[in-house]
Amino acid sequence: MAETALQDRTAKQLRLLEQALDSGRLGPVKRLVNTLSPAEIGNLLESLPPHKRQIVWGLVDPEDDGEVLVHVGDEVREDLLKAMDPDEIVAAAESLDIDDLADLLEDLPDTVIDEVLKSMDRENRERLEQMLTYEEDTAGRLMNPDVVTVRADVSVDVVLRYLRLRGELPEATDRLYIVSRRRQYLGGISLAQLLTADPAVAVNRLIDSEQPAIDADTPVAEVAERFANHDWLSAPVVDENNVLLGRITIDDVVDIIRAQAEHQALGAAGLDEDEDLFAPVPRTTRRRAVWLGINLLTAFLASWVIGNFEGVLQKVVACAVLMPIVASMGGVAGTQVLTLMVRAQALGQVSPANALSLLRKEVLVALANGLVWALAVGSVALAIYRDAWLALAFGAAMVINLIAAALSGVFLPLVLRRVGIDPALAGGVILTTVTDCCGFASFLGLSTLLLMQ
Amino acid sequence: MAETALQDRTAKQLRLLEQALDSGRLGPVKRLVNTLSPAEIGNLLESLPPHKRQIVWGLVDPEDDGEVLVHVGDEVREDLLKAMDPDEIVAAAESLDIDDLADLLEDLPDTVIDEVLKSMDRENRERLEQMLTYEEDTAGRLMNPDVVTVRADVSVDVVLRYLRLRGELPEATDRLYIVSRRRQYLGGISLAQLLTADPAVAVNRLIDSEQPAIDADTPVAEVAERFANHDWLSAPVVDENNVLLGRITIDDVVDIIRAQAEHQALGAAGLDEDEDLFAPVPRTTRRRAVWLGINLLTAFLASWVIGNFEGVLQKVVACAVLMPIVASMGGVAGTQVLTLMVRAQALGQVSPANALSLLRKEVLVALANGLVWALAVGSVALAIYRDAWLALAFGAAMVINLIAAALSGVFLPLVLRRVGIDPALAGGVILTTVTDCCGFASFLGLSTLLLMQ
Asked: Where is the CBS domain (chains A, B) (predicted)?
């Protein structure tokens, strides 16, 4: 994401805060922190090393504690919870909307969960328990059960009087839902319609049944797609009998979309978005070691390929000098195709028919670029080493590896998805293994053929 | 992004559509296409090779033409516009909201722009012209000037009667804005408040001035951050005199966040998100060639480093076999640190003070992992080549390169940002150049020292 003035301000706040912390003046720190929104406080806490984090966390207005906990990654949340008394945690949990509470609950100690449940009224407790029957990352967990419903047979005027009696509406309410006697979802009516309609009109004349309800077990990724495709601001959530359970609002969808983007960016490097930037060194070392270990295996594979050509390496040292170039160009070209394919897959833009068209296109592009760069690198090799056969092997290997890169870039994501592996996460490692091995094998193999007569 | 049922459905629709197209039955194609939302149609058109794309585009309901054009990437849009008569384009443009029209206008032929402007009433034309005075990717371009304003001194009842007279509200209206006589922004009042308040109360008693207005020249990336930090559904946009110009709604923000994520994912591979998946081969070849050329230069640099150690390569062929392992492990470890840093920067989580803490942590992690893997790879090398000095050089180079990777991973994004380069786009290439060169130099250098006595 591009640099913005806001990021600069956030970084500047961070600097001021760290200076104030270092000088021990907690008054200014407290004032600064409590001008921020809970999301911003969460962001700030994530940027602080553990000891400073705890100091600042102690200065946050207890009213905001719950919201801040909702806005930090899992690991930092654990860290913050450790510093709180059970009473403080219960108070923080009580201040939350029920959907945020459902999100937080799993991270709380069991005794605290009991306390929180006891402190709720029966209706809310039942709603919460119902939400928890749905799996994490489904609409049933994401929704807020706090909705305003009306019946179809009343007039707008009755609804208006009801709303005035009721007082405040749940946050981000943009429409009321119309339900049957058995609370089955029939459609919605927007606040804008209520405000502009003739009060004498019956609600069922205004009912908008265009917006289909979302099943409670729909994955959140699909919920996000549907919001984006239809420009929804909110959507009703129903159970398998079409009974209205709650609603999802777009601010939650924004959080999902941001989390997805982070998951993809970090996952491709073998990282987890819930990891604390300042996790203890031994924990971070262990985690990173897993990824390095996987990559070490693939590197040894490439190295084994090279080991099969010791003959030519011994005789022509230039082969050792030039071989990384062939491998690296294949990796770069293949990554480009892979990235395009992964994006197209995420948008549902790949079918067997167009995969074939894409393959044809990408192979042609690889061939064209292969020839261009073969000529370029071949000439350079010729100029340096004055060996036409070496230059030929170098150029030809470049063409071969770029075509192999295009083929893997198109096929790999298709195959990985078929076997249930996310190509956005694992694709890069596998692809570069292929292009490394193919690059080394083609160049050293051709060199053996052409130079070892 | 994870695979979802919706993506599968989208891909399935695509397959059905391609089958119908191949069999020449356009009736089913037309029916299928016109059950989709404009965003979905756009997505579908982007997935089709050019000749099929034009057939399907001809079958889209002309009413949706404008919205579909707004929802496709720049290149596909150009492609679609080429197939339309000026009259069709004018009709499509006329159907758009003014903010979407501002977005589309630049891609239209000049004669068509004149037609479109002529067809608008004076008020809308002036609004559009005002929007176009702001730069692309600023709030002034993103906003919709169509807002409902009220004065502070009237009662709720007056507002309610005004709204009934006015009829329909602009799409996604969640609050009315209160302005002074000179149209200066004073605050907002939500539809929910209007519905629940006592009609006799004056609007200025309910005014919510908590939401600060956004300056029209604020970059859209910052607008998105502010929406996400505050869970806004809409926000007022003002000029430098605090005069209300329009409002931004969260559905536009969702589009920005998605575009940012795409820009980052594709940009890191040297790709452009506005590129047509099926762009002609020569055009694609040229574009990819640029990125390959940059990478070729960095590959030659690494190759030049190797070339300085021909002596040891000639004598110890194992060096050629093992050297890519050192380079590759450095690249992987460095990419992890770089990815974390880029994310932290994007969230404004990096300050000079915590950069130092991060650096300390990352160097310690690199040292720990370096020692672990040095032992592992050293033992393997010893087992294969039975040469303790070689194993020592291999292990030591691994430690050195992982530490170099950690240092570059932390410093590179700081330096790049200071000089105005986006680390998310250029960081990876530079980092792997550093780790390749350092990996080759340290391993081959140590081998020369230890093995060439």
From this structure: 143-206, 207-266
